[in-house]
Design brief:
seven-stranded antiparallel β-sheet, 14 strands, 14% helix
Length: 190
Amino acid sequence: MKKRLGMQNCLYPLPTTLVGVTVDGKPNFLTIAHVGIVTPTMVSLGMNKVHFSNAGIREHGVFSINIPSVELLRETDACGLISGSKADKASLFDVFYGELEKAPMIEQCPVNMECRLVQTVDFITHELFVAEIAATHCDEDILDDGSVDFGRIRPLLFVMNDRSYWELGNKLAPAWNVGRELRDRLKHGA
C-alpha cells in the first residue's frame, strides 16, 4: 500500500558540493546540494536568494563546483551553517584558481569544475544559475583509465527529507548494458 506524502521532493540523495565564488574581492564557499546536469557540459545551481554568494555569481559570471569527499564532512557542513558575510570560510581550505580568475577552487576536493554563467532564472525565493563547464580538474589518484572513479572519491551525499549526509554505496552494473536482455524481449514482444 502507498501513502500519499503531498508535494515532497524525493530526488535524493544528491551530491553535496562546495560552490566557490568571489564576493567583495575574496573567495567564498557555500554548501549546495541542489546541483543539476543540464547537458553533458552544462550544470545548474538552485540557490536561495538570501545567500551571500549569489551576488558574486551575478557580478563575475563565474563560479566553481567542488566535490568534497566524506573526509570533508565537517568543513562542508560548516560552510552551510554560516554566511560568507560573517566568516572567512575560505580559511578552511587551500584555495587555487584555474583559467576563470574569479572562480576559487578547493585543493582538498578531489574534483573541481570551473563554470561560466550562461543564464539566470529568477523564481520568487530562489535563483537558478545555469552555467557551462569551462574546465574540470581532478586528483590523479581517483582516475581509472581517464575516467573519474566515484568510489575513490567517496562523495558526500545529502538527503533533504531528513536533513542528513550519506556516503555512496557500491557500483551495481554497467549502464546501457544490464537491461539488454529485457530490451531484446520488449523489441520482440515476448
